[in-house]
Design goal:
alpha/beta, 229 residues, 35% helix, six-stranded parallel beta sheet
């Protein structure tokens, strides 16, 4: 018997607490791809899955997992899609998986910017109930040095919109990202900002500099010194 396959391209990541979720590829790669420390999507060009491909995968899921309650949309930041595209995907999810209770995905802080609170509320009504966001830190000097593409004020503004819209969000704090001597500053700045927001989960992970990252070269040439334990 030949089993149908879902479309998955490049690296596929999901948070540990999404282990029981049905995965569905919406994008592959990252829209930004400029963070100095990141090698998660090394070698994978950003691609948005055509709706025809998404629908094809949903037909397979409906056949093999018709009772799926939770769907996690894969890709570095599927929330980069426009509001209208996300609504089209939400409609397809409800069409093919009538027992689905919720869906979630990864996002960059800047993916939230073009979406109004009203649009976010509409997506919440369509069962988008949580987003995972790698803020990394709220220390502006580190954000700038690592080419994150936003500042702490942007984190506060955009995640506050999620609070208002009733969409839960989990954040990732990257311990040691600022390099030697900036650990305390980064921790205090991040704690101050997160105390003004309402994250559901704060995931604390530690920096590992991989050879594929731009930061690795800075370690080799001595312009970046890692924070010790």
């Amino acid at each position: 018997m030949i089993y149908p396959e879902l479309h998955f391209t490049g690296q596929v990541w999901r948070p540990p607490y999404e282990a029981n979720s049905q995965l569905l590829q919406i994008t592959s790669g990252c829209t930004w791809h400029k963070c100095k420390f990141c090698s998660l999507y090394h070698g994978t060009t950003f691609r948005m899955s055509p709706l025809s491909e998404v629908e094809s995968d949903l037909k397979v899921i409906r056949e093999w997992q018709p009772w799926a309650r939770r769907v996690y949309l894969t890709g570095a930041n599927p929330f980069a899609l426009s509001y209208n595209k996300l609504m089209e995907i939400a409609i397809l999810l409800r069409k093919y998986l009538p027992y689905m209770e919720s869906f979630g995905m990864f996002a960059r802080v800047t993916d939230i910017t073009p979406k109004s609170v009203e649009e976010l509320k509409n997506l919440r009504h369509m069962k988008l109930d949580s987003i995972n966001i790698g803020i990394e830190t709220a220390h502006d000097l580190t954000l700038e040095r690592m080419n994150k593409g936003y500042h702490a004020s942007d984190i506060l503004e955009q995640l506050s919109k999620l609070d208002e819209a009733g969409i839960r969000y989990n954040v990732f704090y990257l311990n040691g990202l600022g390099g030697k001597g900036y650990g305390v500053e980064s921790a205090i700045a991040s704690a101050d900002l997160l105390n003004r927001l309402h994250p559901c989960i704060i995931n604390i992970v530690s920096l590992t500099v991989f050879p594929e990252s731009q930061l690795y070269q800075e370690v080799l040439d001595g312009t970046y010194e890692e924070e010790p334990e």
